[in-house]
Design goal:
Length: 231
Amino acid sequence: MFVSFTVAKYSGRNILFGFLSMAIFRILFFLKNYGVVFSKLMGSGKNGTFDIEPDLKQWAYMWVWKSEEHYENFEKKSWVMKYIRRFSTEKFTLFLKPLQSHGLWDGKNPFETNEKENFGDNESIVVLTRASIRIHKAADFWRNVPAIAKNFAQHEGFLYSIGVGEMPFFKQATLSVWQNETFMKAFAYRRKEHSEVIQKTRSQQWYSEELFARFRLMGHAGNVPVSITEF
């Protein structure tokens, strides 16, 4: 299994093309699949994690491929990539290998794997958390999440994050990159604010569906954030 996560930024008059890509890419993939087994076209928030304020200049495209060769063929020949290259100001792609995943996304686990590899002590780790928020729990969710978002990027070992979503307010996800698994776990399980929110999601049943996945960062291309390339 091979996963690509692309972030494209649009500016000026081309901002409209970022918005239109959400519909146009669905049509293009309907006409030719290119070996995609799961895909998500998503908008993004402004503060690098779950965010109620959208960033209309930045859009994310995540595709799960049958193989790396399928992605390479897509990169070279597809109208989707030609569209991104033509209208975006800059873009970058992270290439990911799923190692651990539990939960569901639209009724399936797209990153489920039988491999039992562990992360090395100095190996960067990519984490994806996503959730479908119950409509009657949305107010509670958005009252609690900003406290975490403010301190997210200040934690030791943090390299990059982006908050994305299929639907404003109710279908949200965060992809984050960490120097290693130790730093990631310190944030996820030992930071008081974060652990308290995790407990509330369970006790108050905020989500109708959720998924948590960890990936090995296999490589990257394009205008990758400096924080990732310097590590």
